[in-house]
Amino acid sequence: MPDPGVHCLADVERAAAAVLPADVRDFVGGGSGAEVTLDANRAALDRVLLVPRVLRDVSRCVTETSLLGCPSRLPVALAPVAYQCLLHPEGELAAARAARAAGVPFTVSTLSSVPVERLVATGADVWFQLYWLREPGRALDLVRRAEDAGARAVVLTVDVPWMGRRLRDVRNRFALPDHVRAAHLAPGPTAAHRPLAVAASALAAHTEASFSAALTWSSVAELRAVTRLPLVLKGVLAAEDAVRAAECGVDAVVVSNHGGRQLDGAVPSAVALPEVVAALAGRCEVLLDSGVRTGTDVLRALALGARGVLLGRPALWGLAMAGEEGVRRVLGLLALEFSDALGLAGCADVPAAARLRTVLDGRAPRLARTPSP
């Protein structure tokens, strides 16, 4: 059972840090380069100040919404994260069950240590995240497999031609233990399981050998043509790319810098979000990823124009802390915080949150997109 002293997601992270090996803790918590963008994600969200409304009936705050056509009790989905059996023996299976209990979607990674079929069998609304492989036919086969299994959406990650240089992993010579495998790829040990002779990340070497750096808009069109599922592009920061995605028939974009794990120095997701929302003008859904740690962050994302957020590291800390129960605790705390923030901001539901005004860095309030009485 989780420590009764756990009252927020930062407490969960501290509890997880106490039980994880140092190299696994660094693998989850670290970013690329000097970790400038990792830190900037958090700072950017903290600079978004909300302008609450008063004298509104908030005796009942409704947190439900829909994401990519999936009903969700919160404007939150669990983000795709690889190799979750590093954190707990049940890995993604425990996280998917927790997502189902919380009524939010679960995104399974191409590099999941549990196959998509078992995750769909939990009853969760499962989205399948795709890395574009060096053999595009294999990538499309994975999409068909996920669709046949009952996945509800395909999330194509577009910001990883190769893994960013993550110095914590390099210094630790990080490699996977033998019992943790990519269930959708090679069945046996791979280069990711063999520490390199020099200071380097075996996992980065393996992904560079597996992923294609030739992912282009024609690849998106090819993927769009082979699946009837909602298609999401994750890793969009430029408004021009978001518009191009909508023109390609994409159903949603995730404004994300991969949690500060790819290009160090990239713009924080919360800073990029308003421009992407304005450029798209409602042509597809917009989700925010990277740095979300509180229910107030969820409210901030909605006020900046996002439909919802993806939650990554906090769910992993919960998984490490107490397996399925730990992830449930994380989602329960987030739900409590979001409902509290929603009501204190004078919002009775999620659409009202989208009409809140914000102050950025002390500048004049950003006007709500839809004036409210």
* Percent helix range: 25-40%
Top CATH class: Alpha Beta
- Main structural class: alpha/beta
Order of the strands making up the biggest sheet: 4-11-10-9-8-7-6-5
CATH homologous superfamily title: Aldolase class I
Low-confidence stretches: none
- The appropriate CATH architecture is Alpha-Beta Barrel
What is the count of DSSP helices, taking H or I runs of 4+ residues? 14
Number of domains: 1
The whole-angstrom Rg is 20 Å
Shape: globular
Mean pLDDT: 94
Distance between the termini: 46 Å
| Sheet with most strands | 8 strands, parallel
Proportion of beta-strand residues: 5-15%
Q: Count every beta strand, where a strand is a DSSP E run of 2 or more residues.
A: 12
Q: In CATH terms, what is the fold-level topology?
A: TIM Barrel
- What is the element string, with H for helices and E for strands? HHHEEEEHEHEHEHHHEHEHEHEHHE
Active site: 258 (proton acceptor)
Cofactor: FMN
GO molecular function, one term: oxidoreductase activity, acting on CH-OH group of donors
Family: Belongs to the FMN-dependent alpha-hydroxy acid dehydrogenase family.
